[in-house]
Amino acid sequence: MELPSARHVVTPMSEHLNVIATRIFEAGEEREIVVTFGAPLPVGEDEWVCTYRISGLTRPDGQPLSSSSEGGESHGHDGVQAIRGALTMANATLVNARTKWGVPLTFLGQQDLMLE
């Protein structure tokens, strides 16, 4: 059986995100970027969604990035695929912020953000 691939859909974040994990990244000496993952939820037959939020992510000049830099949803065949997709999309957003906008992101002082 072929599993559907994870896809990215940006929607308004639920105010009642059932948080299952949070990671705090350093963005220089004075800023933190917080990524929060919600519990995967079934949304249909053989479809699950995992929502994630990214707080505090801006360009070094303080300007906002795109709306997808605030978080999104990953859909998958089951909860595990939805979680993996959310981890991958959050990682891609953070790596893009670092490479495209020069945001000095690290985790525990290391360049590897350890989300994949």
Succession of helices and strands: EEEEEEHE
What would the principal axes of the Cα set say about the shape? elongated
Number of strands: 7
The radius of gyration computed from the alpha-carbon positions, rounded to a whole number of angstroms, is 14 Å
Percent range of helical residues: 10-25%
Low-confidence stretches: 1-14
Organism: Streptomyces finlayi
Domain DUF6968: 21-111
Region (Disordered): 58-79
Protein name: DUF6968 domain-containing protein
Question: How is this fold's topology laid out?
Answer:
Layout lengths: L6 E3 L9 E9 L4 E7 L2 E4 L2 E9 L15 E6 L2 H23 L3 E2 L10
Report on this model:
By secondary structure, the chain is α+β, with helices and mostly antiparallel strands. It has one domain. It has one helix and seven strands. Strands 1, 2, 3, 4, 5, 6 and 7 form a seven-stranded antiparallel beta sheet that branches. A hairpin with a 4-residue loop joins strand 2 and strand 3. It is elongated and about 45 Å long. The two termini are 24 Å apart.
Task: Describe the structure using short key phrases.
116 residues, 7 strands, disordered N terminus, 1 helix, elongated
Summarize the structure.
The chain has 116 residues and is α+β, with helices and mostly antiparallel strands. The protein is built from one helix and seven strands.
